[in-house]
Design a protein that fits this description.
By secondary structure, the protein is α/β, with parallel strands linked by helices. Helices cover about 35% and strands about 20% of the residues. The chain folds into 2 domains: about 200 residues, Spore Coat Polysaccharide Biosynthesis Protein SpsA, Chain A, CATH 3.90.550; about 70 residues, no CATH class. Strands 1, 2, 3, 4, 5, 6, 7, 8 and 9 form a 9-stranded mixed beta sheet that branches.
Length: about 290
């Protein structure tokens, strides 16, 4: 039986607390489908290559993958999505807690809005998302901004969306992967919606330390050809983190520097989201 939802959870199991956190995420996801048995499949992609000898284990209802390669956010998502066909796919952190009806709310809106190809649940504790409801409750909030309309810790996409945009670009090993996903949706004129009635709590204070696994250059010796824009002090937050800088450089090569990116996303959102025009996109955001 083809599952309705296939969820991929990225994990790094190196101590008891991280193991318990991933177990709790998988269990809350499983319990949220208790009223519809047989419609959920879960894959955990484990980045601890020594997991087999770690003494930890995950339940039988979970498909476990342990790639023998360094952590790469998009690469590991691609591996988790391979060879599983479902109506919807969920891309999940391991530090989240699923409300009982979280997917029901998304599936309901997906049925009412077939033109939307990607969805995010809302975190009830996240101020940026709560600020979007300042003008009153809405069934969906359209947009592509990571940590606002686009919850990077949990994204649900239709099978047709995955076929259109997949596989994910493995140049993004961790940083800017959400931004690349958002721009890829824009380039394909695929709408993304935040669903306020769907709640998935992001336990952001519990870190998986994946970001520390992402290699980069020595910040004391910036790579040759560093864009002039990044030499300004206001971008020190970016250049001081090797992995983040490498992610940005991959992003800028693909979609343009910060200024070009800002112009492209603004023009696209004005013409497509507000006016419903599709044809300008191929001029505004050329596909890589």
């Amino acid at each position: 039986m083809k599952p309705v939802l296939h969820a991929v959870i990225l994990a790094k199991t190196v101590n008891d607390s991280l193991h318990a956190m991933t177990l709790a995420a998988a269990d809350s996801l499983r319990r949220s489908f208790a009223h519809r048995p047989g419609t959920l499949s879960i894959t955990i992609v484990e980045s601890n290559r020594d997991f087999a000898g770690s003494g930890y284990a995950y339940p039988d209802y979970v498909r476990l993958l342990v790639p023998d390669e360094p952590f790469n956010f998009n690469r590991f998502l691609n591996l988790g999505l391979e060879s599983v066909t479902a109506d919807y796919y969920a891309l999940c952190n391991n530090d989240i807690d699923f409300a009982p009806d979280w997917f029901d709310a998304i599936e309901r809106m997906a049925g009412l809005m077939p033109e939307v190809g990607s969805f995010s649940p809302m975190c009830p504790d996240w101020p940026r998302q709560q600020s979007l409801l300042a003008g009153g409750s809405r069934p969906v909030i359209m947009g592509y901004r990571p940590s606002f309309e686009l919850s990077g810790w949990c994204i649900v996409l239709r099978q047709a969306t995955w076929r259109a945009i997949g596989p994910f670009d493995e140049a993004f090993r961790f940083y800017f992967a959400d931004d690349d996903y958002a721009m890829t949706l824009r380039a394909h004129n695929i709408r993304h919606a935040l669903v306020p009635a769907s709640h998935v709590r992001h336990l952001e204070h519990q870190k998986t330390s994946h970001q520390t696994d992402v290699p980069g250059h020595d910040v004391a010796k910036p790579p040759s050809g560093l864009p002039l824009l990044l030499r300004f002090r206001r971008y020190r937050w970016l250049t001081s983190n090797p992995g983040m800088l490498d992610g940005y450089l991959a992003f800028s090569r693909k979609w343009g520097n910060m200024l070009v990116y800002a112009l492209r996303r603004t023009l696209h959102d004005a013409t497509f989201l507000r006016l419903g025009l599709k044809w300008p996109t191929r001029l505004i955001i050329p596909r890589p």
